């Protein structure tokens, strides 16, 4: 009789253990989607009252397999002049449009804005300084100062990097990580 009671007790303990270890399957796991970015906007001001915005818009979003039409505004500035620049990031595919900038600011240690001028110096160029910092004191550069060169034409490239490996980088390749968006503006200094 003792042997039967022992076997029954062992079976009960095993069934409790097996039931407790049962895992619930996850139905249809969903991939994590990144925010859709359609627009990089430069808000440009200076101490002389200049106040203008310039947009670079990709209708279906940056990094889309079918980006669609690009709407690019020319950036016309005075030569040899300082400007304060703030970058705004939008998803204008939704109605109403979503301003993604606050989310990027809240994750500033995981993002980096890079500003590049072609040419780097001389006529049509822009020099960059005073970029703002992230919560760890590393470059973030959502706000930055532009100092324009002599009159001429050039190109401004604004890149938003996600999880850069080098926050002190000057180019997207040096920064590493993923490119969330890259806007290429024609520059006219006249």
Structure description:
The chain has about 190 residues and is an alpha+beta fold. About 15% of the residues lie in helices and about 40% in strands. Strands 1, 2, 3, 5, 6, 8 and 9 form a seven-stranded antiparallel beta sheet that branches. Strands 4-11-10-7 form a four-stranded mixed beta sheet, with no helix packed on it. The radius of gyration is 26 Å and the shape is globular.
- Poorly predicted spans: 16-21
Calculate the mean pLDDT score and round it.
Answer: 89
How much helical structure, as a percent, in the residues?
10-25%
Q: In this structure, how is the largest beta sheet organized?
A: 7 strands, antiparallel
Oligomer: single chain
State the helix count.
3
Q: How would you describe the shape? A: globular
Rg over CA atoms:
26 Å
Order of helices and strands: HEEEEEEHEEEEHE
Distance between the ends: 103 Å
Please indicate the percent range of residues in DSSP E strands (runs of 2 or more): 35-45%
Structural class: alpha+beta
Structure summary, number of beta strands: 11
């Amino acid at each position: 009789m003792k042997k039967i009671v022992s076997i029954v007790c062992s079976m009960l303990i095993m069934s409790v253990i097996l039931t407790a270890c049962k895992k619930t399957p996850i139905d249809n796991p969903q991939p994590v989607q990144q925010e859709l970015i359609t627009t990089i906007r430069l808000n440009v001001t200076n101490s002389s009252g200049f106040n203008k915005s310039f947009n670079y818009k990709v209708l279906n979003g940056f990094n889309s397999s079918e980006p669609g039409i690009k709407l690019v505004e020319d950036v016309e500035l005075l030569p040899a002049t300082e400007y304060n620049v703030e970058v705004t990031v939008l998803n204008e595919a939704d109605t109403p449009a979503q301003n993604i900038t606050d989310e990027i600011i809240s994750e500033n240690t995981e993002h980096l804005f890079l500003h590049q001028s072609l040419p780097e110096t001389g006529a049509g160029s822009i020099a960059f300084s005073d970029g703002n910092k992230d919560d760890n004191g590393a470059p973030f550069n959502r706000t930055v100062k532009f100092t324009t060169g002599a009159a001429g034409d050039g190109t401004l490239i604004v890149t938003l990097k996600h999880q850069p490996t080098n926050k002190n980088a000057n180019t997207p390749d040096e920064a590493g990580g993923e490119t969330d968006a890259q806007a290429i503006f024609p520059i006219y200094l006249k």
